[in-house]
Amino acid sequence: MFEKVLIANRGEIAIRVMRACRELDMKSVAIYSDADKTSLYTNYADESYPLGNPSPAKSYLNIEKIINIALESGADAIHPGYGFLAENPKFGEECEKNGIKLIGPSGKVIHEMGDKITSKALMKKAGVPVIEGTPEGVQDIEEAKEIARNIGYPVIVKASAGGGGIGMRAVYEEEELVRAIESTQSVAATNFGDSTVFIEKYLEKPRHIEFQLLADEHGNVIHVADRECSIQRRHQKLLEEAPSPIMTEELREEMGGSAVKAAEYIGYTSAGTVEFLYDNGNYYFLEMNTRIQVEHPITELVTNTDLIKEQIRIAAGEELSYEQKDIQVTGHAIECRINAEDPLNDFSPNPGKITGYRSPGGPGVRLDSGVYMNYTIPTFYDSMISKLITYGRNREDAINRMKRALSEYIILGVKTTIPFHKAILRNPNFISGDLNTHFIDTYKKGIESEMNNVIAEDLEIVNKLKSTFMPGKKIAAISAAVGSYQNQAKSHIGKK
């Protein structure tokens, strides 16, 4: 087992990995930019080292600087978390050159599965169902038109090197195709340094279902059940649950078997996720995430596993702690991503100082967070504040527990997605489990209207509890800020 692990990340995932290190009796090393000097995770670690400039390119994406800190601190392994360098094959190569173990799969696998065209071809060879589309990047516009006609509209144009929902555009008729290809190529070149795009059949109302995998270096591969991730905006997830409301034992065995087959075919090791689109009784490979997922806690709760500790053990050369028969799904879990975003303004980022904070608790509630009272959320990074997770005996229990936890969760000073999640949990279609990846767009008007009701209720709660946050003149400022948000909501709904 390792003696010291450097966490090449920040925020709540850094704390999550550090907790696993403590339970495994290993030292942890934090790295932080100038913008993260006061972040909670820097004090949670056993050691902390500065990165300087807060720009991601000069801090959390600076491979040379991070490797040098790992060597200086004596870390014998690096955990990349998710985002930043987690799926960068070059980072793995540099770790290996310097005798440091990257807690993740090989650079070769990261590269192959990070390219959507290559990964799709590999999955087809492995016998995993794939969506009909182009076998290689689109070069000729006239050829692209012919391909789209043969597939049948609607189609979707995707960046081959894309991720995080970036570089995707649905096309419903031929007149839109040229513009879609050109704009997607531009987005891909800017964000990924690779303008390659491809075309595939667009499923209009699929469910997004993914399977967690664990694979060791001794050839053992298992799936750790399924997650439903259909509540998304701009192809980015906002709320996840485990298991999927439509999952049966037979379907789990079939889809989980395909996920395992995918991992075995490419020689995968570590924790990873195979994502599928499910439509009308059929499922298709979407992509593979060669890292730990943001939503891993819901899987841990319903399967009684610790995926981060298992990931570390695998990297240390140990065999899996579990066999497939050990993975039993019990109960239901839901995760709400609490972001510093304005859900009434197209989820625009809203960083700033947290002027009032009360976290939820009680039975079946887990909060993965890296913030605190008076903490200032930086403008340079992802807008996530925390992940609120609830567990219940069944889906109804988990929903009701999440409603209760959200009512207890108070964050002042920045706008958050808490009202959005409250509105989603009241939506009758969500409650019935009638989900698809266009859920938010489909029910947008009703969700926004319900958010107006939610914000009014939240104002009453804040007024009752405001004296517990801060006394004196600031109370009036807090009430005014919340009231302003309420007025904004009313105005927004009125315009609709």
UniProtKB/TrEMBL annotation:
GO terms for biological process: gluconeogenesis. It holds the Pfam family Biotin_carb_C. Residues 120-316 form the ATP-grasp domain. One of its GO terms (molecular function) is metal ion binding. Residues 1-445 form the Biotin carboxylation domain. InterPro entries: ACC_Biotin_Carboxylase (IPR051602), Acetyl_CoA_COase_biotin_COase (IPR004549), ATP-grasp (IPR011761), BC-like_N (IPR005481), Biotin_carboxylation_dom (IPR011764), Biotin_COase_C (IPR005482), CPAse_ATP-bd (IPR005479), PreATP-grasp_dom_sf (IPR016185). Its EC number is 6.4.1.1. Its cofactor is Mn(2+); Co(2+). It catalyses: hydrogencarbonate + pyruvate + ATP = oxaloacetate + ADP + phosphate + H(+). Pathway: Carbohydrate biosynthesis; gluconeogenesis. PANTHER family: BIOTIN CARBOXYLASE, CHLOROPLASTIC, PYRUVATE CARBOXYLASE SUBUNIT A. Pyruvate carboxylase catalyzes a 2-step reaction, involving the ATP-dependent carboxylation of the covalently attached biotin in the first step and the transfer of the carboxyl group to pyruvate in the second. This is Pyruvate carboxylase subunit A. The gene is pycA.
